[in-house]
């Protein structure tokens, strides 16, 4: 590619949000460049859970066969365990939605999007290209500067730059759009273990006072486990050594003792995730839009990060295609903000629920944990629990059919 290029839309970041957005725009005939700083899509310990709503969406968009061909784990339920017992459980098959959440590695899903995208002559994928700055004209965003894999600068002029570069978005920082970052009380250490024979395809939250493990069945035959540490406590955990870490995990869930002792040999077998939420009141400027984690970073509770990212693209793609037709020059922020407001509402509902859960999980006193157990036992007996969780897990429920179908299929 020359060191200057012009396109309709430049998408920065080929995660779930950027790759699907570029695909949906390319289907609509929009000239798209997708720039990804990585040289491949290998990424361990990312959101691998696709919520049921997004599974339906991806099937509608025709990605069902690619996902089937790769294979995935269907998640059949979720349970909350304390003192070796299930206190509250839910069977995902009882939700009023015609799909189960699935676990599939991100490279498989992103690969499916990009494999189709490259068949469109109006799509271009630039791997190993890092965003370095925005190009602005008259206070409007008019493109971006990138660096190619050899470190050579490249300018891409675009009528819309889409920031899909994740939770630490460099594009967001360069744009001046402000994010409110709220750290959660705890961070996470992730690791993977083989899934024991006979283990159900259910997600588990294993709790002891204010410590917990999130255990997720993971493709193909693994468990992905998140262990919570106090904020910025990973340094302390490392100083205490891997032996102490193993002991602490086993203390929480003795069922994992043999697996942890065999498979967690060093810190290289783990991955650290800082937990925070990022809220951005304004997602667009003239010529610029934030989507996915760049516009709203959620916590891992209930595995909604990928869902939120994918749903952003479904809502925005038809609006962007129309705005490109109806205007000249940079896409006006005013055409994007009504959709951003809808998406913020969905995200705010998820964040609110996640914060309640965080507060619940942070209880450490005898009275606090007793009350938590009592509340969960009561909820478990109430069939209304499916209605309550459906609102969060399977949102959005009010997706206009034309948003999904549009001219996408
Ligand atoms: C360790 C970890 C564990 C997680 N666990 C869960 C979980 O259990 N459940 C859940 O739902 N979510 C989880 N998440 C969050 C989930 O992965 C994200 O919500 C989801 O991937 C967001 O998609 P995205 O496309 O917005 O951003 P990302 O997936 O972060 O993709 C951003 C892309 O932009 C690229 N990029 C970044 N900077 C630049 C740049 N300057 N130039 C060019 N490209 C750039 C990156 O390489 C990446 O490919 C986890 C995240 C992490 C990091």
Could you describe the 3D structure shown?
Helix content is 37%, strand content 29%. The protein has 13 helices and 21 strands. The protein has helices at 16-27, 52-60, 64-70, 106-117, 170-175, 234-240, 242-252, 257-263, 305-326, 333-361, 366-381, 385-393, 401-405, and strands at residues 4-12, 32-36, 49-50, 73-74, 77-82, 85-91, 102-103, 123-127, 130-137, 140-147, 153-163, 179-183, 186-194, 202-208, 211-218, 222-230, 270-273, 276-280, 284-285, 288-290, 296-297. The strands form four sheets. Strands 1, 2, 8, 9, 10, 11, 19 and 20 form an eight-stranded mixed beta sheet that branches. Strands 6-5-14-15-16-13-17 form a seven-stranded mixed beta sheet. The protein has a three-stranded antiparallel beta sheet with strand order 3-7-4. The chain is globular, with a radius of gyration of 22 Å. The two termini are 31 Å apart. The protein binds flavin-adenine dinucleotide. The site of flavin-adenine dinucleotide (FAD) has 33 residues, from helix 1, strand 2, strand 9, strand 17 and helix 9.
Low-confidence stretches: none
- As a whole number of angstroms, the C-alpha radius of gyration is 22 Å
Mean pLDDT reading: 93
**Structure classification:** alpha+beta
> How many DSSP H or I helices?
13
| CATH architecture annotation name of the largest domain | 3-Layer(bba) Sandwich
Determine the CATH superfamily of the largest domain: FAD/NAD(P)-binding domain
Question: Can you tell me the number of structural domains?
Answer: 2
Strand content bin: 25-35%
Shape: globular
Share of helix, binned: 25-40%
Count of β-strands = 21
CATH class of the largest domain, named Alpha Beta
| Largest sheet geometry | 8 strands, mixed
Per the CATH scheme, the topology name of the largest domain is: FAD/NAD(P)-binding domain
């Amino acid at each position: 590619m020359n060191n200057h290029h012009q396109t309709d839309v430049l998408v920065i970041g080929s995660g779930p949000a950027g790759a699907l957005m570029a695909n949906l725009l390319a289907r609509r005939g929009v000239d798209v460049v997708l720039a990804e700083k990585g040289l491949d899509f290998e990424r361990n310990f990312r959101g691998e859970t696709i919520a049921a709503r997004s599974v339906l969406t991806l099937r509608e968009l025709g990605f069902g066969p690619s996902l089937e061909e790769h294979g995935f784990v269907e998640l059949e339920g979720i349970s909350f365990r304390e003192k070796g017992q299930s206190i509250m459980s839910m069977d995902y098959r009882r939700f009023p939605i015609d799909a189960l959440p699935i676990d599939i590695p991100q490279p498989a899903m992103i690969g499916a999007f990009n494999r189709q995208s490259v068949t469109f002559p109006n799509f271009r994928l630039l791997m190993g290209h890092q965003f370095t700055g925005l190009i602005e004209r008259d206070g409007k965003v008019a493109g971006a500067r990138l660096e190619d894999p050899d470190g050579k600068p490249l300018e891409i002029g675009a009528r819309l730059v889409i920031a899909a570069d994740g939770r630490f978005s460099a594009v967001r920082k360069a744009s001046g759009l402000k994010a409110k970052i709220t750290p959660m009380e705890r961070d996470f250490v992730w690791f993977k273990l083989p899934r024991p024979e006979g283990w159900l395809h259910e997600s588990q939250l294993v709790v002891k006072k204010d410590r917990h493990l999130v255990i997720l069945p993971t493709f193909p035959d693994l468990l992905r486990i998140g262990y919570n540490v106090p904020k910025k406590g990973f340094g302390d955990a490392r100083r205490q050594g891997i032996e102490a870490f193993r002991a602490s995990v086993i203390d929480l869930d003795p069922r994992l003792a043999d697996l942890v002792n065999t498979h967690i040999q060093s810190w290289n077998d783990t991955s650290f995730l800082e937990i925070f939420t990022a809220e951005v009141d304004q997602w667009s400027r003239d010529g610029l839009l934030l989507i996915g984690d760049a516009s709203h970073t959620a916590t891992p509770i209930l595995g909604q990060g990928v869902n939120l990212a994918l749903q952003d693209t479904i809502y925005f793609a038809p609006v962007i295609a129309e705005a490109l037709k109806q205007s000249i020059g940079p896409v006006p922020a005013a055409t994007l903000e009504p959709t951003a407001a809808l998406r913020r509402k969905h995200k705010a509902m998820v964040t609110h629920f996640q914060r309640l859960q965080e507060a619940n999980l942070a209880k450490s006193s005898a009275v606090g944990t007793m009350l938590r157990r009592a509340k969960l036992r009561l909820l478990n007996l109430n069939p209304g629990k499916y209605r309550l969780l459906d609102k969060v897990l399977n949102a959005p429920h009010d997706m206009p059919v034309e948003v999904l179908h549009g001219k996408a299929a």
